[in-house]
Amino acid sequence: MTDDGSNPASNLTISDDVRQKFPDLIDLIVKSESMNDEERQYWINILPIMTPEQTQNLRDILDNEKNQLADIDEKYSSQTDAASDQELIAKTDATRQQQRAERSEKEEQHLKEEDSQTEDLLKKIEQL
After folding, report:
1. What distance lies between CA 108 and its chain's CA centroid?
2. Hey, how many other C-beta atoms are within 10 angstroms of the C-beta on 10?
3. Which has more confidence, 128 or 40?
4. What is the pLDDT of residue 10?
5. Which of 3, 28, 46, 79 could make an SS bond with 12 (beta carbons 3.0 to 4.6 A apart)?
């Protein structure tokens, strides 16, 4: 019997008996990123003749691999999130600086206009 398609790239032959006796190990073997299909098939083939200690060792190794990869993914994800946060902070800072500069320009222009109006008023008063 072939694999049920949970990993479409693999062409593994897994007997119903082995699948029933070792469902967790089959899942770990099929999803292992450190094995190619040939290695996966080897481990599936020898599962029935392995001792309980050997199957437990294999389970421990594959669980450890799975956990380490999950930790790496989580660490990478948090680093990516941190980088995205830094990018957002930088963009926000740039936007705020631009807004401050625009506001400062408007205030300066307004002050010049106010000074000009004040001078005009003073000239008109002097002419009276």
Report:
1. 46
2. 17
3. 40
4. 58
5. 3
Structure tokens at 19: 């699948």
Enumerate residues 6+ apart whose C-beta is below 8 A from 24: 59
Among 45, 42, 37, 35, residue whose Cα is nearest residue 15: 45
Quick one: pLDDT at residue 73? 86
Place of tokens 């008109």: 124
**Cα–Cα distances in angstroms (integers) from residue 40 to residues 4, 24, 65, 118, in the given order:** 15, 14, 15, 88
Whether 61 contacts 55, CB under 8 Å: no
For residue 35, CA distances in Å to 7, 9, 42, 81 come to 13, 13, 10, 30
87-100 residue pLDDT tens: 878 888 888 888 88
**Residue 12: Cβ within 10 Å count:** 20
Hey, what are 72's tokens?
């790496």
Domain residue spans in the chain? 1-49, 70-128
Site of tokens 């990516």: 80
